[in-house]
Inverse folding.
């Protein structure tokens, strides 16, 4: 659009101001980006391959990595096994009980890790609510703590993914005689898959980083309940190279989880009906 | 086979109060948007609740408010083809058609509707007319006792429309099961309907029985 010469001077000033404000907002926001990236850069930069190799040869490292891999796999398995049916039910139900359950399931997200550890001890410990056998200070306790803190992330992501599944598909499947379990497995899960994968990755990353609740409920026993975050904490006092090497491995793994999550999200956004 | 129903239901603002009898042929429902045609189909399929009345297909009672009978949609054996078709996007044409049916039944319906060449394709890659045929095949493969079609031809271009219409007429005549079809097009209604009912604000205001059916019988 051409503007008469006489008006150009007038419209130029506000335009410049608008532009300056936009740049100002972006610059203010970029402070946070720098702040968030700085520690990661500090961790990774200057870490040579030799340092990494030396660090990873520390005796704490491999048992911790193995245990973390085992426990997070198990916690993810149980989270999916119980979380997916829960998320499907929450997404499809309009009852008040479902709304209350949906809110309650998110409680562990806001509970401080130390409180979670104490609560888990009181529920599953020697004199726990469930009584009898104590889970505390076992591998099972590590898994329980990881499920407790990570499952809410999966349930939330999966519930919103299931909500985006068009009810028409479910209706058609029902008129074709499909049972509720069949509708869930053949229609719900495949159509919500990107969201489910993304939620699983997020939940798994959270379980991998679990520290506080594990420390209180499962302890910090090398080779038995010492996961990677706990090993980092233990090594931190005696061998900084080992702590740093483990930290770099965790960051790398977390980065992969993030990539998976973003890829799944962009797929689900692209496929939205 | 026959389909008779009397239904009173409320859906939002709309109060539905209708009596329909498709006999063993095709009842066409016409009327403006919001008259309650699609709602009526959903109630017949069991996907929406009705307040009072009854639904009977081939002598089997599917709903009777007085006797407390309400057969769930999974067990009604009523084929429902919604206006947007809702073909499962993650399944091939063959898997869509076989979803509610055995392999044998699915294969024979695929053959009957000339869909065999498309069996391995995904719905997203099909033309409008092809999609419509797949949706029809999926509904028929489970051997329904009645068929509900919500504007089956509205999304098609002229060419596909006449093809699918002919196929639909042929199929409905061959199966001899009652069908209820919603349409806005008077020509479709004349061509496919044995009876035509006009709905207005939740009620049927006129019913015509066509002496010479579209099926030529």
């Amino acid at each position: 659009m051409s503007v008469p010469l006489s008006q150009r001077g007038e419209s130029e000033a506000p335009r410049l101001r608008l532009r300056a404000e936009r740049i100002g907002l972006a610059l203010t926001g970029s402070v946070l980006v720098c702040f968030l990236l700085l520690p990661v850069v500090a961790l990774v930069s200057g870490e040579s391959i030799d340092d990494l190799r030396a660090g990873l040869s520390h005796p704490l490292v491999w048992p911790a990595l193995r245990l973390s891999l085992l426990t997070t796999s198990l916690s993810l398995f149980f989270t999916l096994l119980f979380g997916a049916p829960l998320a499907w039910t929450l997404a499809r139900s309009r009852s008040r009980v479902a709304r209350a359950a949906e809110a309650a399931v998110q409680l562990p997200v806001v509970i401080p890790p130390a409180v979670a550890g104490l609560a888990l001890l009181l529920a599953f410990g020697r004199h726990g609510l469930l009584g009898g056998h104590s889970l505390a200070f076992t591998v099972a306790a590590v898994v329980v703590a990881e499920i407790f803190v990570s499952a809410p992330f999966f349930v939330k992501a999966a519930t919103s993914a299931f909500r985006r599944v068009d009810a028409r598909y479910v209706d058609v499947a029902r008129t074709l005689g499909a049972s509720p379990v069949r509708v869930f497995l053949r229609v719900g899960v495949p159509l919500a898959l990107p969201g489910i994968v993304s939620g699983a990755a997020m939940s798994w990353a959270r379980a991998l980083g679990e520290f506080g609740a594990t420390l209180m409920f499962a302890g910090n026993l090398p080779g038995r309940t010492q996961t990677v975050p706990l090993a980092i904490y233990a090594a931190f006092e005696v061998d900084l190279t080992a702590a740093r090497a483990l930290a770099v491995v965790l960051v790398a793994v977390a980065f992969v989880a993030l990539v998976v999550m973003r890829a799944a999200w962009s797929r689900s956004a692209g496929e939205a009906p | 086979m026959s389909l008779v129903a009397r239904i009173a239901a409320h859906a939002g603002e709309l109060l539905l109060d209708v009596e329909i009898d498709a006999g063993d042929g095709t009842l066409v429902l016409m009327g403006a948007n919001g008259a309650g045609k699609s709602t009526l189909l959903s109630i017949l399929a069991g996907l929406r609740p009705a307040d009072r009345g009854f639904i009977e297909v081939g002598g089997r009672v599917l709903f009777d408010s007085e006797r407390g009978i309400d057969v769930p949609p999974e067990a009604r054996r009523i084929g429902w083809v919604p206006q947007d078709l809702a073909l499962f996007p993650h399944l091939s044409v063959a898997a869509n058609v076989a979803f509610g049916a055995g392999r044998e039944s699915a294969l024979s319906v695929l053959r009957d509707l000339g869909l065999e060449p498309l069996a391995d394709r995904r719905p997203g890659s099909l033309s409008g007319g092809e999609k419509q045929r797949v949706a029809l095949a999926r509904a028929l493969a489970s051997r329904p006792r009645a068929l509900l079609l919500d504007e089956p031809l509205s999304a098609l271009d002229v060419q596909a429309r006449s093809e699918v219409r002919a196929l639909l007429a042929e199929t409905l005549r061959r199966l001899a099961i009652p069908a209820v079809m919603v349409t806005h097009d008077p020509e479709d209604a004349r061509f496919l309907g044995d009876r035509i009912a006009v709905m207005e604000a939740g009620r049927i205001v006129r019913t015509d029985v066509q002496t010479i059916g579209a099926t030529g019988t």
Summary: The longest helix of chain B spans residues 158-175. Helices of chain B lie at 37-45, 73-76, 93-97, 103-112, 128-141, 158-175, 186-192. The first strand of chain B starts at residue 3 and ends at 11. Residues 3-209 of chain B form a domain with the Rossmann fold fold (CATH 3.40.50.300).
